[in-house]
Design brief:
The complex is a heterodimer of chains A (about 325) and B (about 300). Chain A is of the alpha/beta class. Chain A has two domains: about 220 residues, P-loop containing nucleotide triphosphate hydrolases (Rossmann fold, 3-Layer(aba) Sandwich), CATH 3.40.50; about 70 residues, no CATH class. Chain A contains eleven helices and twelve strands. In chain A, the strands form two sheets. Chain A has an eight-stranded mixed β-sheet with strand order 6-7-8-3-9-10-12-11, with helices on both faces. In chain A, strands 2-1-4-5 form a four-stranded antiparallel β-sheet. The two termini of chain A are about 40 Å apart. In chain B, helix 3 crosses helix 13, helix 7 packs antiparallel against helix 9 and helix 11 runs antiparallel to helix 13. Chain B is elongated and about 80 Å long. Chain B has 13 helices and no strands. Chain B is mainly α and about 300 residues long. The chains are: A alpha/beta (about 325), B mainly alpha (about 300). The interface between A and B is large, with 50 and 40 residues. The structure holds iron/sulfur cluster.
C-alpha cells in the first residue's frame, strides 16, 4: 500500500534553459542561455491544488511544460508517483502521460478545427486505451461531456461552433476522459470573460471534489488563483519568491513582490479600495537573458539593500508551511 | 460517472438531449464547400473546365476525321479550301499542313492539360513533402533546407529550362524534368510556413501532452490542416504549368511534332497569320485563354472558400 499522504509529484531544483540566438549573429556564435526556470522545487499532494502566479514571462508555463517533459530540462528531478521522469524517452513517458493531463490558455486554438469534439475528446482514450470498442469509447466521451456541462448529443459538432467557455469545457473533458491524477491548467481562464471565468473555475473545483484529481493552476493574477488553490507559489524570473498555503499568503504576504501583487488586486468595496495603497512596481521585468545578480527581484524591490545584489536569498521556512526567499523577511 | 448538476434545469435538458438524435456538425470542409458552391465565377469555370476536359478526352469521337491524315487537295490552298465548315466535318478547318485542325486541337488540349496537371501534381508532391519535413523538424535542418530553396529560386529558371532542352534534346520527359525542377520551390516555401504555424498551435501541444505518437500527430493534426492550402496552390499551379509549357512550345523547344500542344498550335497559328488563315490561331488560342481563366477562377474560389484568414 502506498502512503496516501505521500506527494504524487515532487519537483526538485528543476532548471529549464533555452538557447537563444541573438538576431543578426553568425550561425556559429554560441547561443545565449535563457534561464526560464532556475531552480524551482515543490511538492504536490493527491487531490491538492497548487496555484502558480507570476507576471507573463516569469517561467510559469515553462515550469508546467517541464513537469510534463515538454521543455528541455537542464538539471533537476521530476518524480511522479515514485518514478523519475527527467530523461525518459517518449515511449517510456507515454504511460505517465495518461495520468497527467493539461488544459490550455486559448480554448479554441487547443482544439483541432478539423475534428469533431467527439473525436477530440476521444483522442487521449484512443492513445491510452486502444482496446476499447467504438461503442465503449463513445459512451465514455458522452459521459465526460455531460460531466463538464456540454450536451452529449453535440459530439459531432466542430470546435468553431462553440463559444470560448464551451471550448474550455471541451478541453477539460479531453483532460478528464482518461481519469488523470493531475491536471495542469495553463492559464485556463485568462482568455475568457470574467463571468465565464467563474463558471470554469467552479467546474474545475467541482470535478476535483468528485474525482480527487490534483490541479496545478497557473495564472498571472492572484485573485483568480485565490479561490481555487490550497497553496500558492509566486514565481518571478524563474525563481520561487514565496510559497504558502492560500489563506496564509493572502492574510500575511511576506515577500515584497507578493505584497505588490496583492495590492494590485482590486477590493470589491469602494471605500476600502480608495483607501488602499497600491504598491506600483516601477520599471519593467528585467530580461531573463540577463537577470540581476543576487536577488532577481532587487531591481524593482522597494526595500532592497546592498547585500541583495551580492547573495541570492534562499527559500526559508517561516512557519505554517510558509516559505519566503528574501533577506529581510 | 455521476452527472454534475450545474443548474437545476440541466438534468432535464440532458435527458431530453440523450433522447434526441445526435446533432450533425458543420465541418470546415462543409463550410468551404458551401462557400465554393456560392461562388458563381468559380462554378461557371468549373463547368467550362469539365467541358474542356471532356473535349480533350472524347472530342475526337465527334469528328469523322483524325489528326494525322493530310488532305493533299487542301494542302496548296488552305486559305480558300481549309476554312472551318460544319458541312464537311472539319469543324475548325485545316491546319497549314492540311490536317484536320479540330483533331489537332483535341490532341493539343489533352497534352497541355496533362502537362499542367501532372506537372502540378509532381510539384505539389515534392514541394509539400520537402516543406512539411523542413517545417516539422525545424532548427538547423529547416535552415539548411530553406537556404537551398532560396538559392535555387535565385536561378533564372526559364534560362535553365531552355538550356536543358537544348542540351538534352527536346522531349516531353525533359520538359517535365525542367518544369518540375523549379515549380516545387514555391510550394515548399508555402507549406513550410504553414507547417510552422500549425506546429505552434496549442492543439498540437495538447496532442503531445497526451502522448500521441508523432506520426499520428502529423497524420491526424498537421496534414488535414495543411490540405486546404495545398489544394488552393495546386489549382493555381496547373495554369502556371500550362503557361510555361506553352511558352516553351511557342519558342519551338517544347512538345515536338507529331505531338502538339496549345503553345505549339498557337505558334503555328501566328506564323501563318499573314496568309489570312486566322482560324488556325483563334481556335487553339480560344481554348487556351478560356481554360487558363477557368483555372485561375477556380483557384481563387477555392482560396476564398478554404482560407480562414479571408473570412
Ligand atoms: S532579498 Fe532584497 S531585493 Fe530581494 S526581495 Fe528581499 S529585500 Fe527585496
Amino acid at each position: 500500500m502506498k502512503d496516501v499522504t505521500a506527494p504524487i509529484l515532487r519537483v526538485d531544483d528543476i532548471k529549464v534553459w533555452f538557447d537563444v540566438k541573438m538576431p543578426g549573429s553568425w550561425p556559429w556564435t554560441k547561443p545565449r542561455k535563457l534561464k526560464a526556470v532556475d531552480g524551482v522545487s515543490f511538492e504536490l499532494n493527491p487531490g491538492e491544488t497548487l496555484g502558480i502566479v507570476g507576471e507573463s514571462g516569469c517561467g510559469k508555463s515553462t515550469l508546467a511544460r517541464a513537469v510534463m517533459q515538454m521543455a528541455p530540462v537542464e538539471a533537476g528531478n521530476v518524480v511522479w508517483l515514485g518514478d523519475e521522469l527527467v530523461g525518459l524517452d517518449t515511449g517510456q513517458m507515454r504511460k505517465h502521460r495518461k495520468e497527467m493531463q493539461m488544459i490550455f490558455q486559448d480554448p479554441l486554438a487547443s482544439l483541432n478545427p478539423r475534428m469533431t469534439i467527439g473525436q477530440i475528446v476521444a483522442e487521449p482514450l484512443k492513445t491510452h486505451h486502444p482496446n476499447l470498442s467504438g461503442a465503449e469509447m463513445k459512451d465514455r466521451v458522452r459521459d465526460v461531456l455531460d460531466t463538464v456541462g456540454i450536451l452529449p448529443n453535440l459530439v459531432n459538432r466542430y470546435p468553431h461552433e462553440f463559444s470560448g467557455g464551451q471550448c474550455q469545457r471541451i478541453g477539460i473533458a479531453r483532460a478528464l476522459v482518461v481519469d488523470p491524477k493531475l491536471i495542469i491548467c495553463d492559464e485556463p481562464v485568462s482568455a475568457l470573460d470574467v463571468s465565464i471565468q467563474a463558471q470554469v473555475i467552479n467546474l474545475l473545483m467541482k470535478l476535483q471534489e468528485e474525482t480527487g484529481v490534483a490541479l496545478i493552476f497557473i495564472a498571472h493574477d492572484l485573485s483568480v488563483v485565490k479561490h481555487i488553490s490550497d497553496r500558492v507559489m509566486v514565481l518571478y524570473l524563474g525563481n520561487v519568491m514565496e510559497i504558502a498555503p492560500s489563506a496564509g499568503l493572502y492574510a500575511n504576504p511576506m515577500h515584497p513582490y507578493t505584497e505588490a501583487l496583492i495590492s494590485a488586486v482590486p477590493i470589491p468595496d469602494p471605500k476600502l479600495e480608495a483607501a488602499k495603497e497600491v504598491m506600483l512596481l516601477d520599471q519593467d521585468l528585467p530580461s531573463p537573458l540577463n537577470p540581476p545578480s543576487g536577488c532577481v527581484f532587487r531591481t524593482r524591490c522597494p526595500i532592497a539593500e546592498p547585500r541583495c545584489a551580492e547573495t541570492k536569498p534562499t527559500l526559508a521556512h517561516k512557519g505554517d508551511d510558509h516559505q519566503v526567499a528574501c533577506h529581510l523577511r | 460517472m455521476t452527472n454534475v448538476t450545474l443548474n437545476p434545469q440541466q438534468p432535464k435538458t440532458a435527458e431530453m438531449a440523450q433522447r434526441m438524435d445526435e446533432v450533425k456538425g458543420r465541418s470546415l470542409w462543409a463550410d468551404a464547400r458551401t462557400r465554393f458552391l456560392r461562388n458563381k465565377a468559380a462554378m461557371v469555370s468549373l463547368v467550362v473546365l469539365v467541358l474542356v476536359a471532356g473535349f480533350a478526352f472524347f472530342g475526337h469521337a465527334l469528328s469523322p476525321w483524325d489528326n494525322e491524315t493530310i488532305d493533299w487537295d487542301v494542302l496548296g490552298n488552305v486559305k480558300e479550301m481549309g476554312k472551318p465548315s460544319l458541312a464537311n466535318g472539319h469543324f475548325f478547318g485545316f491546319d497549314d499542313s492540311g490536317r484536320d485542325l479540330y483533331n489537332r486541337v483535341v490532341q493539343g488540349t489533352r497534352i497541355s492539360l496533362m502537362v499542367g496537371v501532372v506537372g502540378a501534381l509532381i510539384a505539389v508532391f515534392v514541394g509539400t513533402t520537402y516543406g512539411a519535413v523542413a517545417g516539422f523538424i525545424g532548427g538547423r535542418v529547416d535552415n539548411a533546407m530553406m537556404r537551398f530553396v532560396d538559392i535555387a529560386m535565385s536561378i533564372p529558371y526559364m534560362f535553365v529550362l531552355i538550356l536543358l532542352l537544348v542540351v538534352f534534346g527536346r522531349s516531353i520527359g525533359m520538359l517535365f524534368v525542367g518544369i518540375g525542377l523549379t515549380a516545387w520551390l514555391d510550394m515548399s516555401r508555402i507549406v513550410r510556413g504553414q507547417t510552422l504555424s500549425i506546429k505552434n498551435k496549442e492543439f498540437i501541444e495538447a496532442a503531445v501532452a497526451t502522448g500521441v505518437p508523432w506520426f499520428t500527430i502529423i497524420r491526424r493534426h498537421v496534414v488535414p490542416n495543411l490540405l486546404g492550402v495545398v489544394v488552393v496552390y495546386a489549382t493555381l499551379l496547373v495554369p502556371q504549368m500550362i503557361l510555361t509549357e506553352s511558352f516553351i512550345s511557342f519558342l519551338g523547344l517544347g512538345v515536338q511534332e507529331p505531338l502538339t500542344s496549345w503553345g505549339a498550335l498557337i505558334s503555328e497559328g501566328t506564323s501563318t497569320m499573314g496568309y489570312g488563315t486566322l482560324w488556325q490561331l483563334f481556335f487553339p488560342l480560344g481554348f487556351f485563354v478560356i481554360s487558363i481563366f477557368a483555372f485561375f477562377f477556380i483557384g481563387d474560389g477555392l482560396r476564398d472558400a478554404l482560407d480562414p484568414k479571408d473570412r
